[in-house]
Amino acid sequence: MDTIPEIQTTRLISSSQVEGTPVYNLEREKLGTVDSVMIDRESGQVVYAVMAFGGFLGLGEKRHPMTWNTMIYDKQREGYVVSLSREELEGAPNMNAGAYGELADRDYEETVYTHYKAQPYWL
To answer: Were both Cys, which of 31, 39, 76, 99 would link to 95 (CB 3.0–4.6 Å)?
Structure first.
């Protein structure tokens, strides 16, 4: 089976290179890493970066879906920056690892977009 090459240009990056990228707050504190990128199947729009946060050695780690437009890539840090404190992130909607089905629930999605004060992608 052929493998899909990792693609990176000046403007585009493959999802495999986004996964594992660190996420920092404005105080330069590392909050977690990008666990996965969620894409709307019909529009092709990147909707969420699901961030792994908390826990110890992978135990008790939660996943926080963050609206894609909440994150800004910082070339110097080679990571994404969000304007959230650790406490704000702890209070954000979260889910267990592998529970991505929750993102198919519109009520849950509305909770996520309300928390980040972002325009829902489906409007």
So the answer is: 99
**Cα 86 to the center of its chain, rounded Å:** 15
pLDDT tens digits, one per residue of 51-99:
988 766 656 678 899 999 889 999 999 999 999 888 888 889 988 777 8
Distances in whole angstroms, Cα of residue 17 to Cα of each of 6, 8, 39, 104: 7, 8, 15, 24
For residue 103 the two structure tokens come to: 């993102």
CB 52 within 8 A of CB 33: yes
Tell me which residue range forms the domain holding 23. 15-112
Q: Whose CA is closest to 117, among 85, 92, 87?
A: 92
CATH code (residue 89): 2.30.30.240
Q: In DSSP terms, which residues pair with 59 in a beta bridge? A: 56
| Count of domains observed in the chain | 1
